[in-house]
Amino acid sequence: MNHPVVIIGAGLSGLYAASLLVEHGINCRVLEARDRIGGRVLSIAVSDRAESKQFDLGPTWFWPQYEKVIAGLASRLNLGTFEQYTEGAMVSERSLNGPPQRLVLPEGSMEKSMRFTGGVQSLIAGVEKTLPLGTVELGKRVTSIRFDRIGAITIKTKFANGKKEEVQASAVILALPPRIIAQHIEFSPSLPTDVMTDLLNKPTWMAGQAKVVAVYDHPFWRDAGLAGYATSWVGPLQEIHDASPVQGPGALFGFFGMPAAVRQELGEDQLKEMVIDQLVRLFGPEAKNVRSIFYKDWSNDAETAVEDDSIPLMDFPAYGKPPQWEEWQDKILFAGTETSTQFGGHLEGALQSAEQAVAEVVNLKNNFYRKESDSSG
Known about the structure:
Blueprint: E1 5-8, H1 12-23, E2 28-32, E3 43-48, E4 51-56, H2 68-76, E5 81-83, E6 89-93, E7 101-103, E8 114-116, H3 121-128, E9 136-138, E10 141-147, E11 153-158, E12 164-169, E13 171-174, H4 178-184, E14 186-188, H5 193-200, E15 210-216, H6 220-223, E16 226-232, E17 237-242, E18 250-256, H7 260-266, H8 268-283, E19 292-297, E20 332-334, H9 347-376
Parallel strand pairs: 1-2, 1-13, 2-9, 6-16, 10-14, 13-20
Antiparallel strand pairs: 3-4, 5-8, 6-7, 10-11, 11-12, 15-18, 15-19, 16-17, 17-18
Helix pairs in contact: 1-3, 1-9, 4-5
Pfam families: Amino_oxidase (PF01593), NAD_binding_8 (PF13450)
GO molecular function: oxidoreductase activity
Organism: Planococcus versutus
């Protein structure tokens, strides 16, 4: 293994894979098309007097009672965590003809979930700190991967300014959404039909979604005995949760129930106005006093979504690894939450898939040096 292992994608899975490779003493490079790390992890900072609070526009929670990898990683990185606020009544909105219903859920009806004190971006930053300086290379879009007869892997990249570069690799870990891989990267030799079909049929988690966060001076709904949790058949948001930090301002976040095409037709400004109107209906007139409001439509993110992702998921997809194929075997490995069978769509799935990919690389390395030793002996 004379060349580095190249990881394509600097989201959680790609960064964690790099961290694990470094632990094993394996040289690696991480190529990222964006100008930032994190992928679908995106935390927005809002200044609160002397402190800066983080609000997540991507994934928010993890469940340590089931998800042992992320719980262990958070502990090793000394990241602050706290339990999602669920005390009080929920609000349910079924029509505009009457006031929303206030419901008290039975104790234990909501699973305990945890959040990161510094937003999920603190997890990304913590993993990045375990990497040697220069491991992650931003603004490098991979356009093709070529594997020749003598076993050499050549990766072609393109910068935003049009400059191109070729990178040599001993193996490649693809830590990207499957549909992005299938539609944005050219393979030579071509991927088998069943592999390409599998990649194209895996919806990208969150890619059809948009998320909004409304920030307030304090979590006023708690004073009224509300949990900040609401569901709505009216919209524009279909599900709302308390997004407040441990101390400081209050915040509510919600997921939209409308398709991407409708969101794009309405536009961000109108959607924000509709969101505030809905929050007033659900939580009272104080909800109009928004300090800041942030919006992220993942269907507009070209590094996340393709056209087929524009319709929000209604059911949980069947995720897992693509089929194996002989020609590219041991050369191309897959990571990312969509390749995890048990925790697909979760941060835990991104981490577990990275562990599996790195385990395969370590096995390749051991086999390589075993063969070298046998041939020299």
